[in-house]
Amino acid sequence: MAARPRARSQEAARLSDALAAGTAIDERAALVVATSGSTGTPKGAMLTRANLAASAAGTHERLGGPGQWLLAMPPHHVAGVQVMLRSLASGHAPLGLDVRNGFDPAALGPAHARMTADRRYVSIVPTQLVKTLADPAATEALARFDGVLVGGAACPPSAREAALAAGIRIVRTYGMSETAGGCVYDGVPLPGVEIRVDVPDSRVVLGGPTVALGYRNAPGHPAFAEPGWFRTDDAGTLTDGVLAVTGRLDEAISTGGLTVLPQVVEAVLARVPGVAEVAVFGRPDPRLGEAVEAAVVPEPGATVTVEALRAAVAAEVDRTAAPRALHLLDELPRRGPGKVDRRALVDRFSEY
Predict the structure, then answer these.
(1) pTM of the full predicted structure?
(2) What's the pLDDT tens digit per position in 151-167?
(3) What DSSP assignment string belongs to 259-302?
């Protein structure tokens, strides 16, 4: 138990450095939110009052009207901040769950009963959805909300299907600190938000009223080189105005001369019988450059084999992208709001 306070202190120090606490701030910025720092030191995204207002208004328009929000995640991430701001913008005090020691799905029912607005919303990450679906009473409680935003990481197809079958009104969100949180719902941008997919790398570029001013103390950062637009590190496709994110360009695995996006492989592996959760990562390899490997949380009582995983990927993607090793875990390492920590997996299994 002693390690938890130290970890929190280290995280607080890391975020304080990213936000440049104690130094002058751009007078146009109403809020500075730290990015998740997936590729190193987190950065502080400067959001204006107009950014935040546009995000809240667009969310309520898409969901069917303003309402009260339940805070079920840490408040220092952009998703948590937005839950509070949306509720306040609707004229309702947000209600919060105590998640300092983890998320308890059993708390959803009592929390919903304490809310007072006609319309009630909650925002969660996929791991919270999976936990909720394992509890029949919590699943029933989640289905009583008028809207359930699910974001921060890719939602397993099996969890999405189970949620819809249970009558849960889930909406998959895509966005980041630099866009005031989720700005694309179920692949469709919120009002005023623009999407572009640039060639040759299929990079997703987002524009519109939710795009931040830029990064704190980092003028001229290439991600904000084009005024009003933010260059993400995600690859995707845009079909009839609907965005599908295929993976992160900065997490691509170079193996045997082929570039593999982990998320593409994960989408296939998530459908393999017995797989509850999966993360694909590249482990340094002297012959291949990187070897594709998979960490899997199996369903209770299920048997998952590397042969089954390889066969599934070879049939749908390419044999070179198939995992060469399987690691069975009780849970996947996470960082930020539900994102898989691939670096932790690389560090953990590089000794093997």
Answers:
(1) 0.79
(2) 988 888 888 999 999 99
(3) EE-HHHHHHHHTTSTTEEEEEEEEEEETTTEEEEEEEEEEPTT-
